[in-house]
Each structure stands twice: as C-alpha cells, then as structure tokens.
Amino acid sequence: MGRDADSAVAHAATWLGNRREHIAWALVALALTGAVGTSVAAGFVLHHLAALERQGRRTESLGNAVFQLQNTLVAEPGKRLESLGEAALTFALIQGQDPAEATNVAPAYHAYVNAWRSVASVAVLRSRLAELQDSVRAEIEREAHSSRAATPIARALLIAAVSSAVVLVGLLGWLFQMERKAG
What span, in angstroms and rounded, lies between the C-alpha atoms of 20 and 34? Predict the structure, then answer.
C-alpha cells in the first residue's frame, strides 16, 4: 500500500513537472486578468468619488449663494438681482448634474427665494434660510456618507491591483528562469 501511495505522488509530480510551463502561463493569465480587472474597477470607483466631490462643492456653492441673498436685502436692486441670479445659476447646475439632489433641495430653495422676492419679514426669511441650510447640510452629509463608504472599496481595489501586478511580475520572472534553464 505504501508503494502505491508513493507511486501516485511520483506520478502527480511528474505530471506537474511536465506541465509546469502551461501552469505558469495559466497563472500569468489569471494574474493579468486580476490586475486589469481590479484596476478598471478601482478607476470606476475613483471616478464616482470625484463626481461626489464635485457635487459636494456645487451644493456648498448653493448654500453660499443663498446666504449671500440674505446679505443683499438692504443693497441696491441691481446687487440683489445679481445675487439672485448667482443662486439660480448654482441651483440650475445642481439640477443638471444631480436631479435627485435638486429634488431634495428644491422645496426649501424655492420657499426661500419666493420669500426673498416678496421681501417677507426678516423672521420669515431667517426661517426659510434655516430650512434651506438644513436641506443643503443634509445633502452634503449624504454625499460625505457615500464618499466614506466608497473610499475603502477604492483602497482595497487599488491594493488588489498592485498585488496582482507584483504576482504577475513574479510569475513572469519564474517563466523567464524556466526558459533560461531549458536553453
């Protein structure tokens, strides 16, 4: 029984030895697929993170533009219209880039702008401004949460891509050594 086991191990070792180059090429293909696949996936996640960052900046710009409206209540009409135009432009940018966010912010934004246009009392304007700031803050928090969730995924994918590349280089070095020994 011991001879049969030894014979089976010897046969398996011979079989592997005869196919070592094929196995190495299969491992190279697997490592290359892993490196490319994880790099592409990491690129998509990083692109998503960059889009979140840009959207966060647009949202903050809306908050700043609307806050500037508050400061122009006592200014001359030209300055007030300019500030209103800036706020409208910023809101339009958000609508174009992230309609879902615009839908979330729109009720508070329109309520504030309508109160501002009608030159409502200072108490009403402050109330509407607080609502809008809360809405903008909630959207910024939502974007920050998405960013915090995607960052570890991107990091893991980048580490996997680098690891796959290192394994690929090692396998190619092994193949080179096998070819060199074979003559």
Answer: 21
